[in-house]
Amino acid sequence: MNIHVGNLPVNVSADDLKVFFEVFGKVGSIDLIVNTKTGEAKGYAFIEMPSDEEALSTIETLNGKEWLGKTLVLTKANRQGYPAKRKLNRRR
Predict the structure, then answer these.
(1) Nearest CA to 5 among 69, 58, 54?
(2) Chain centroid, CA 61 distance in Å
């Protein structure tokens, strides 16, 4: 399962994320989104965890928790690696 992790500090590295998330289960891959001009993190990443149970538990445990001075926002990402969109009631 892919997890979208938002509100990350700009100085976080993929290694930092791997060490932090491995406490909660096996990490398959990490896609830290960076600014191509500055090389700094843009504040979000996608963490792939092979076990859906571990991924859901991680989301439940870490969403809203503080890490490195920032309050993390974790959501289940869709298959393309983007945060799952909320369904909105829109009038047309």
Answers:
(1) 58
(2) 13
Residue spans of the domains in the chain: they are 2-76
pLDDT in tens, the chain (92 residues): 999 999 999 999 999 999 999 999 999 999 999 999 988 899 999 999 999 999 999 999 999 999 999 999 999 997 555 565 554 454 54
Distance CA 87, CA 58 (A): 23
Task: Report the predicted TM-score, pTM, of the whole model to 2 decimal places.
Answer: 0.82
Domain 2-76 is classified in which CATH homologous superfamily? RRM (RNA recognition motif) domain (3.30.70.330)
Cβ pair 64, 25 in contact under 8 A? no
